[in-house]
């Protein structure tokens, strides 16, 4: 099955109160936004939330999008940005890097296609997404309730991200941990020793499927030497075992086979880092 959805962003003033939305039909749509952001940020977030919301469906996704920026970012520019450490050809940092990296993670393991549609030209689904994105932006402008919509059945709460310089809308801790766990399974993260050093706790340990105990340095050396795709995640449970500790259990599917895994994430100085990981064959 292929999910066909329109995704759109809106910013009043650009930058200004911003909204995003994706739309499949009247029973399947979702919207959100921030007090301050840009249209491009809204366009990116609409696609991110669509992919994250439908991640558990296993379906392909076809995105109807009126943003050439988003389509080009995914289909043309992203591989080069990643090779250059998320910098453009001229060496300047990639704009909206946090959102672009999150989109890269959301795309991992999915079959996603994009189709450009002309905005404000009467396309039914594009107009529906645009109306909902603008309604979200307007709600932030008027400080009223945001019409978020029904979302996707069984999807976790939508995560949001820092946008601009003066607004932070925090995502739920459980969503953060799941997002970081997914990031750790990507070849891009596994090839980057500095990113691994940030994600892994200084006292990180792992018990592998063979029963071997791995320390942090050995894991980093092993992953960067052969940064293979760690597969996809099917979350089983997310348990807060302390105020700054979350235990994640999930089933991972990769070319090496299925496995059951558990990860303990600790928050230190406001940053979640992986303290312990264990995996067994499913």
Question: Which characteristics define this entry?
Answer:
alpha/beta; Nucleotidyltransferase, domain 5; Nuclear Transport Factor 2, Chain: A; 6-stranded mixed beta sheet; 5-stranded mixed beta sheet
Please give a structural write-up.
The strands form 2 sheets. This protein has a 6-stranded mixed sheet with strand order 7-6-11-10-9-8. A hairpin with a 5-residue loop joins β6 (200-207) and β7. The protein folds into 2 domains: 2-142, Nucleotidyltransferase, domain 5 (2-Layer Sandwich), CATH 3.30.420; 173-281, Nuclear Transport Factor 2, Chain: A, CATH 3.10.450. The chain has 282 residues and is α/β, with parallel strands linked by helices. The protein is globular, with a radius of gyration of 19 Å. The two termini are 26 Å apart. It has 8 helices and 11 strands. 36% of the residues are buried.
Mean pLDDT: 87
Shape: globular
Kindly name the structural category: alpha/beta
Strand content: 25-35%
Q: What is the number of E strands?
A: 11
Radius of gyration: 19 Å
Strand order of the largest sheet: 7-6-11-10-9-8
């Amino acid at each position: 099955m292929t999910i066909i959805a329109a995704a759109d962003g809106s910013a009043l003033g650009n930058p200004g109160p911003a909204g995003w939305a994706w739309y499949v039909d009247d029973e399947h749509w979702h919207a959100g936004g921030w007090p301050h952001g840009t249209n491009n940020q809204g366009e990116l977030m609409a696609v991110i939330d669509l992919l994250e919301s439908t991640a558990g469906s296993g379906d392909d996704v076809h995105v109807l999008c009126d943003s050439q920026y988003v389509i080009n970012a995914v289909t043309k520019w992203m591989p080069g940005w990643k090779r250059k450490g998320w910098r453009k050809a001229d060496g300047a940092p990639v704009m909206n890097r946090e959102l672009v990296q999150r989109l890269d993670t959301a795309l991992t393991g999915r079959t996603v296609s994009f189709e450009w549609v002309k905005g404000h030209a009467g396309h039914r689904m594009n107009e529906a997404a645009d109306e909902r994105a603008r309604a979200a932006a307007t709600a932030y402008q008027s400080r009223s309730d945001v019409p978020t919509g029904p979302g996707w059945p069984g999807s976790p709460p939508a995560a949001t991200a820092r946008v601009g310089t003066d607004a932070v809308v925090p995502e739920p801790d459980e969503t953060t941990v799941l997002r970081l766990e997914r990031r750790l399974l990507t070849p891009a993260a596994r090839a980057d020793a500095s990113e691994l050093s940030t994600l892994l706790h200084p006292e990180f340990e792992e018990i592998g499927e063979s029963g071997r105990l791995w320390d942090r340095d050995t894991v980093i050396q092993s992953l960067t030497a052969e940064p293979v795709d760690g597969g996809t995640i099917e979350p089983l449970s997310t348990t807060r075992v302390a105020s700054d500790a979350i235990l994640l259990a999930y089933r991972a599917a990769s070319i090496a086979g299925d496995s059951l895994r558990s990860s303990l994430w600790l928050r230190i100085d406001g940053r979640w880092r992986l303290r312990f990981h264990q995996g067994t064959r499913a």
